[in-house]
């Protein structure tokens, strides 16, 4: 694809806000598979589709709370989940296909705003070689009082980056994330090439795209 050299001049955006899991790092498939295995072992057998619907795009704290509510007992999150995530990610995690090329072609300032913790993002972005691209511009659910689908994390990122919400483009791949971006008054571009399809992500005026390589051209519309 020819790089859109005039993207800055013609774009209505001053900031591109990327979600992390499923948008920058191809972690959602690995996480959902792992969660299905762990939850089955804990006594709550959910399908991968169930997990996508219930938890993708939400914080670990939300998921932890819901699991304990369903099981009626405490769950050691680090031992049961984080250990398994790290094991699988260290073996299999890679950038989302096409995202490095897309980042190279998007000259607009950017940042990350994720439901993941700072620790988790430093780990996954570091594993995939993307951490240096966003150093100092990484915002986490840890930084706000409410996670997605509330708009807090996106509004926080925009404020820290000194950009009005209506000049921000959000790149998301989950229902919760799309809902949060729209609630923040931002233009949302929903990546349907991951675990959540275009039908579920077609919320209000979100722009759907299925190949991360198309993002630079999509942002120029």
Question: Could you characterize the architecture of this molecule?
Answer:
The structure is a single chain. By secondary structure, this protein is an alpha/beta fold. Helix content is 47%, strand content 11%. The protein has 12 helices and 6 strands. The protein has helices spanning 7-10, 28-42, 48-55, 60-71, 77-92, 99-105, 118-127, 131-134, 152-160, 175-183, 198-201, 215-219, and strands spanning 15-18, 110-114, 138-140, 168-172, 187-191, 207-209. A 6-stranded parallel beta sheet has the order 3-2-1-4-5-6. Helix 2 (28-42) packs antiparallel against helix 5 (77-92). It is globular, with a radius of gyration of 17 Å. The two termini are 15 Å apart.
SSE run: HEHHHHHEHHEHEHEHEH
Helices, by number, come to 12
How much β-strand is present in the residues?
5-15%
Tell me the major beta sheet: 6 strands, parallel
> Which assembly state applies to the chains in this document?
single chain
What separation lies between the terminal Cα atoms? Answer: 15 Å
What are the low-pLDDT stretches, counting only 5+ consecutive residues below 50? none
The coarse overall form would be: globular
- Count of β-strands: 6
Helix/strand class: alpha/beta
Chain-averaged pLDDT:
92
């Amino acid at each position: 694809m020819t790089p859109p050299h005039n993207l800055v001049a013609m774009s209505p955006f001053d900031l591109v806000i990327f979600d992390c899991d499923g948008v920058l790092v191809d972690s959602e498939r690995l996480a959902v598979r792992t969660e299905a295995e762990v939850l089955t072992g804990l006594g709550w057998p959910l399908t991968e589709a169930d997990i996508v619907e219930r938890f993708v795009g939400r914080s670990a704290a939300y998921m932890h709370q819901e699991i304990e509510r369903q099981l009626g007992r405490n769950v050691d999150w680090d031992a049961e989940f984080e250990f398994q995530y790290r094991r699988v990610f260290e073996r299999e995690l890679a950038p989302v296909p096409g995202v490095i090329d897309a980042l190279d072609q998007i000259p607009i300032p950017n940042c990350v705003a994720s439901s993941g913790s700072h620790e988790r993002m430093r780990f996954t972005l570091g594993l995939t070689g993307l951490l240096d691209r966003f150093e100092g511009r990484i915002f986490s659910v840890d930084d706000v009082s409410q996670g997605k689908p509330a708009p807090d994390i996106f509004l926080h990122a925009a404020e820290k980056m000194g950009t009005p919400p209506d000049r921000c483009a959000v790149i998301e791949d989950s229902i919760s994330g799309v809902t949060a971006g729209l609630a923040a008054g931002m233009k949302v571009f929903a990546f349907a090439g991951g675990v959540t399809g275009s039908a579920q992500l077609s919320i209000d005026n979100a722009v759907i795209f299925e190949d991360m390589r198309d993002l630079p051209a999509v942002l120029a519309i």
